[in-house]
Design a protein that fits this description.
This protein has 208 residues and is mainly alpha-helical. 76% of the residues lie in helices and 0% in strands. Helix 1 runs antiparallel to helix 2 and helix 3 runs antiparallel to helix 6. The radius of gyration is 18 Å and the shape is elongated.
């Protein structure tokens, strides 16, 4: 394998930014499910395409780490950040796939709290995408991880309210089981965004 002895910093930051932009694409697609007459299969298929692109970005990132002698910051942190960005995309894809496979969008309406969770995820995705290019200077990132933490707390609150609705008797038992699985993926995505922010905070503290 050919090694580069110069830190190809631009390549790493570009890969992080591309991965984060894919998360915005993912939440944009989930938002389509709230539109009248949404093509759920199309949304699910496009989410899978975005997830595959994210997998390739992660693969390229790992390859870049292994072929670069000097990295812009700790290799373990680069691996961790790349893996965590990919984890978020996995959860977003799972939400779309489950909604389609379980036929949940054929219900008269999805619980309001599900749409609220997608809104939280959309905000987290956009803030994360704005933050990734700032890794190059390590400046102006504190507001990012504070806001992601606030949104994660909001996501937890909405998730609890969603569970209350699911077990209120409004839905039949099978539908509850299906929607609970979707709810868990939504909540896991919120948590995964916070894991990304925590890693960014760790990197920033180490490098300051």
């Amino acid at each position: 394998m050919k090694f580069s002895f110069r830190p190809t910093e631009g390549a790493f930051y570009e890969l992080f930014s591309r991965a984060a932009q894919n998360l915005v694409r993912g939440t944009d697609l989930l938002n389509e499910l709230a539109l009248p007459g949404a093509d759920v299969q199309s949304v699910s298929d496009r989410l899978t395409d975005v997830e595959h692109d994210s997998d390739q970005i992660t693969h390229d990132l790992y390859k870049k780490i292994n072929s670069t002698f000097i990295t812009p910051f700790d290799r373990e942190d680069i691996y961790s950040l790349g893996s965590q960005l990919d984890d978020v995309m996995d959860h977003l894809e799972a939400v779309g796939n489950l909604l389609y496979l379980y036929g949940l969008t054929e219900l008269p309406s999805l619980p309001r709290e599900m749409h609220e969770l997608v809104t939280v995820l959309d905000q987290q995705a956009k803030i994360t995408a704005e933050a990734m290019p700032k890794l190059k200077t390590m400046k102006g990132l504190e507001e990012y991880w504070i806001e992601i933490n606030r949104l994660e707390n909001e996501g937890d609150r909405v998730y609890r309210m969603l569970l209350v609705r699911l077990f209120s008797g409004e839905y039949d038992a099978l539908t509850v089981l299906k929607m609970k699985e979707v709810a868990d993926e939504l909540e896991a995505a919120c948590d995964a965004f916070e894991h990304v922010a925590n890693t960014v905070e760790t990197i920033t503290v180490k490098e300051s």
